[in-house]
Amino acid sequence: MMSFAFRRLGAGFVQLLAITFLAWALFYLVADVTGANPAQRVAGKAASKAEIRRVAHELGTDRPLWQQYGRFVWKLAHGDFGYSYQQRRPVAEIIYPAAKTTASLVIGAAFVWLVLATIVGVAGGLRPRSVLDRGLMVLVLLGLSTPVFWVAPMLSYFLGYQPTQGQVFSIPLPHPMTLFPIDGYVNLVDDPVGWAYHLALPWLAFALGFAAVYARMIRALVIEQLGEDYVRTARAKGATMRRVIARHVGPNVAPMVATMIGLDVGVALGGAFFVETVFGLPGLGYVGLSSIQNLDYPLTVGTITLAAIAAVAANTAADLAHGALDPRIREKGGG
Amino acid sequence: MSVTVAETVAPAEGVLRSSGRDFWRRFHRDRLAMGAAAFLVLLVLAAVAGAPLAAEVTGHAPNAEYSSALDLNGFPLGLMQRTYDAAGEHHDPRGQLFVLGADRLGRDQLVRLLYGARVSLMVAFGATSLAILIGVLVGIAAGYYGGKVDAVASRFIESAMAFPALLLAVGLAVVIGAGLVNALVVIAVFTWYYPARLVRTQTISLRRTQFVEAARSIGGSDVHILFRHVLPHLAAPLLVYGTSIVATNILFEAGLSYLGVGVPLPTASWGSMLSDGVTSGYYRFDPALALVPGAALVLTMLALNLLGDGLRDAFDPRTSR
Question: ipTM more than 0.90?
Answer without folding.
Answer: no
